[in-house]
Amino acid sequence: MPETLPEIQRRLTFAIISHPDAGKTTTTEKLLLFGGAIHIAGAVKSNKNSRAAVSDFMEMEKERGISISSSVMGFDYGGRKINILDTPGHADFSEDTYRGLSAVDSALILIDAVKGVEERTRKLCEVCRMRSTPIMTFMNKLDREGKDPIELLDEVEKELALQVRPVTWPIGQGQSFKGVYNLLENQLYLFRAGQVELPTDIVAISGVEDPRLEQEVGEYLARKLREDMALVTSIYPPFDLQEYMEGLVTPVFFGSALNNFGVRELLDNLVRFAPYPQAKKADERTVEPAEAKFTGFIFKIHANLDPKHRDRVAFLRICSGKFERNKQYLHVRSGKTIRAANPTAFMAQNRDIIDEAWPGDIIGLHDTGTFKIGDTMTEGEELHFQGIPSFAPQIFRTILNADPMKSKQFHKGLDQLAEEGVVQVFTKPHNQNVRVLGVVGQLQLEVLQYRLVHEYGAACRYEPIEFTLCNWITSSDARALEAFLDRYSHKILIDVRGTHIFMAENPWLLQRFKTDNPAVKFYPTSEMVESRA
Ligand code: G4P
């Protein structure tokens, strides 16, 4: 254990959450640039694809498959080993993002100061809140005329249900943007538009009353800052690290990633405050990172989209102990032992084979079909980690094999692609042969069809079903649950874990079923079922 602790305390594994176009690619790149992990801008590929055709999407995924390292970017900075988890930019692929959040210890929310809080941010933030994940917030694009900062903070409090604690405060905005005032340090960080060289000009002042403020930002903005500060300090209590760690408050920073402004401060504060690897809940017990024995779980599987190579990369998050190359580990679901001969680390621009890895690290394991999302690996203990949720799909289709001669290929393809998380597959209680697919976005259906054809030589077609909403259901009253399942069997599906799902036509009906059946508990994600099990 003694050798584990310092390694754990060095780790910082986080994901960036944002709505497409808020500046995630730009910010990630600037974090890597300031972190010294890359030396030129343009090295990070955007994975956004706002409304492309499925073939474009596959092309893009192929490119990403080759430079898979962009899914996790690791680098050393400020004495810590930082792992940034990239999350897919396409709105239709948000399930992958949700799952990625199970592998991080904190999150950074990026908000476009012109647009304010947007839909995807809201959804992803909900997942963080459900797990009490600590969140930092970066208000981006301050170089543009945007919303009033107080209005932005109000939006975060209302729409994300997070209390805010401004750590920096903008001086002017858009054309008149002069920089930020750091409330914790009493320092001015001055903005020079378009400045691409480092570092930012920093001026230490003794507080907002310091007459140097006028010299630096002019009379009007100095007065405005004093007024703002009087208001801000009366509304918001000072930043409290413990409250942040518990996911109750979010420290807020302002800047402009495109102009390199505020990103270094953000990185410095991440290094200073963001949590190191935290304990993880398993069905059996809570696993502490400092435990001597290795444990970890698979949260993502990335196919090599070259049809000639069916191999995949499984992403493993290490939860405790030390992972060693070539050591035998138990793959809990199958009961078999597995030896990883070529585990890879994801550094900023390359994938290197590693000999060991520590809690908080994410490594890639070569997979020929062994792994499923959610699988646990240990040194022998039967553990099942929680928190790899399946989210309530919003689109349902019955899937049918369109080519009877290719039945084997169809089933194999569907099973493997479901394991990869491309779609969720459900069965009906009394007819195991009918497969119902659930997805959060239409694009997932198109990708499944495309990949069945191109990788498995199988064809499928979809038939609509009338439901649009589903909830996972359980009950502590077995008889009540049985009666409910019997009565509404035409509205029930079963997920891969054997948990029942109730489907409804609309929110109003769902609510009515909830009210009429108080003994049955309804949950919008499978994770909520687990955490109450
Ligand atoms: P995403 O990954 O979250 O989708 O966003 P991305 O970084 O690609 O940024 C989206 C757009 O916003 C890009 O412009 C980018 O240049 C711009 N942007 C990012 N940060 C800032 C900022 O601080 N200020 C301003 N004014 N713009 C910012 P684009 O025109 O869509 O792309 P590009 O042609 O510039 O690459």
Overview of the molecule:
Mean pLDDT is 85; it is low at 47-52 and 64-70. 29% of the residues lie in helices and 28% in strands. It is built from 15 helices and 31 strands. It has 3 domains: 14-75 and 88-273, Rossmann fold (3-Layer(aba) Sandwich); 280-378, P-loop containing nucleotide triphosphate hydrolases (Rossmann fold); 395-532, Peptide chain release factor 3, domain III (Alpha-Beta Plaits, 2-Layer Sandwich), CATH 3.30.70.3280. The chain is globular and about 80 Å long. Strands 18-17-23-14-15-22-19-20 form an 8-stranded antiparallel beta sheet. Guanosine-5',3'-tetraphosphate binds at residues 18, 20-26, 46, 48, 89, 140-141, 143-144, 256-259.
Can you summarize this structure?
By secondary structure, the protein is α+β, with helices and mostly antiparallel strands.
Q: What is the element layout, followed by pairings?
A:
Layout: H1 4-10, E1 11-18, H2 24-34, H3 54-66, E2 72-77, E3 80-85, H4 94-100, E4 106-112, H5 119-131, E5 135-140, H6 149-159, E6 163-166, E7 168-171, E8 179-182, E9 187-190, E10 201-204, H7 212-217, H8 219-235, H9 241-245, E11 249-254, H10 263-273, E12 280-281, E13 286-287, E14 295-303, E15 312-320, E16 323-324, E17 328-331, E18 336-339, E19 344-346, E20 351-353, E21 356-357, E22 362-367, E23 376-378, E24 395-401, H11 407-419, E25 424-428, E26 431-439, H12 442-456, E27 460-464, E28 469-474, H13 478-487, E29 492-494, E30 500-504, H14 507-516, E31 521-523, H15 526-532
Parallel strand pairs: 1-3, 1-4, 4-5, 5-11, 6-11
Antiparallel strand pairs: 2-3, 7-8, 8-9, 9-10, 12-13, 14-15, 14-23, 15-22, 16-21, 17-18, 17-23, 19-20, 19-22, 24-26, 24-27, 25-26, 28-30, 28-31, 29-30
Helix pairs in contact: 3-12, 11-12
Bound molecules: guanosine-5',3'-tetraphosphate.
